[in-house]
From TrEMBL:
Keywords: Phosphoprotein. This is Response regulator. The lineage of its organism: Bacteria, Pseudomonadati, Pseudomonadota, Alphaproteobacteria, Rhodobacterales. InterPro entries: Bact_response_regulator, CheY-like_superfamily, PhyR_sigma2, PhyR_sigma4, RNA_pol_sigma_r3/r4-like, Sig_resp-reg_PhyR, Sig_transdc_resp-reg_receiver. The modification 4-aspartylphosphate is found at residue 190. PANTHER family: RESPONSE REGULATORY DOMAIN-CONTAINING PROTEIN (PTHR44591:SF3), STRESS RESPONSE REGULATOR PROTEIN 1 (PTHR44591).
Length: 265
């Protein structure tokens, strides 16, 4: 394997692991398939010759995962178990296409290359996934973000999707107090907050209150702080600057795959 290919794989491995976890519904399972992908690449680097290395990496993962029957992993917890129950109701291949497009940022034609379908089919898969998720469930969303303009933009995106915003917290202390006052169904959180407090610590404090049963979407300019290979890692992580479709996709999936009795369908 050339140094260029190895470097590209190393740079994109955290994002492949993010995708694998969201796709399989389990951090352990996602990591196993990512590792199996690397083993397959070591045995045969031919797909990387004269092809975009990142596309080749994700395509190699799909070949490994599909050859195993596109299985879901053993759930990490009750939240993950609920997610897997919901996955079985989706139209086949739609979740993969949506994740590749909205979370990983691939263009439609690139998704076609990765999934080995034509561009029109890739676009249709994305559209189907969005429709199925957005119409399935709505709930209460809490935003942890210290930049007012970004917070209001996220609020507008989420409210336009039909969700209720419980409030916006700028610090760790505010976040914990807000969650205690009005328990959310989903948390959208930045990492670096006002007064130099940590959004990660704020989320951990809130999860401790509610038994780690709340889905979380991190929106951050520092994804490397969360994609470390250590447990736990978020299934939904959006990198700033974000797009409206990325927020919509992550919120829809988090709500859809971890809806609870408190959510109003």
């Amino acid at each position: 394997m050339s140094e260029d290919i190895a470097g590209t794989i190393g740079a994109n491995l955290p994002y492949l692991r993010r995708y694998a976890r969201a796709l399989t519904g389990s951090q352990d399972s996602g990591d196993r398939y990512a590792a199996a992908t690397l083993e397959a690449i070591l045995e045969d680097t031919t797909p990387f010759e004269n092809n975009d290395p990142k596309l080749a990496l994700f395509h190699a993962f799909h070949l490994v995962w599909a050859s195993a029957g596109a299985p879901l992993g053993e759930p990490d917890n009750r939240l993950s178990a609920r997610a897997q129950d919901h996955m079985s109701t989706l139209t086949p291949n739609t979740r993969e296409a949506l994740l590749l497009h909205s979370i990983e940022g691939f263009r439609v034609e690139e998704i076609g290359t990765i999934m080995q379908v034509d561009t029109d089919e890739a676009k249709e898969l994305i559209d189907i996934a969005i429709r199925e998720m957005e119409t399935s469930v709505a709930g209460k969303v809490m935003i942890i973000e210290d930049e007012a303009i970004i917070a209001m933009d996220i609020r507008a995106i989420v409210e336009d999707m039909g969700h209720q915003i419980t409030g916006i917290a700028r610090t760790r202390t505010e976040a914990v107090e807000l969650a205690s006052t009005d328990k959310p169904d989903l948390i959208l959180a930045d990492i670096q907050l006002a007064d130099n407090s940590s959004g990660i610590d704020a989320v951990n404090d809130i999860l401790a209150q509610f038994g780690n049963e709340l889905p979380v979407v991190f929106i951050t300019a520092f994804p490397e702080r969360l994609l470390t290979g250590e447990r736990p890692e978020p299934a939904f992580l959006i990198t700033k600057p974000y797009t409206e479709s990325q927020v919509q996709s992550a919120v829809s999936q988090a709500m859809f795959f971890s809806s609870t009795e408190t959510l109003a369908a």
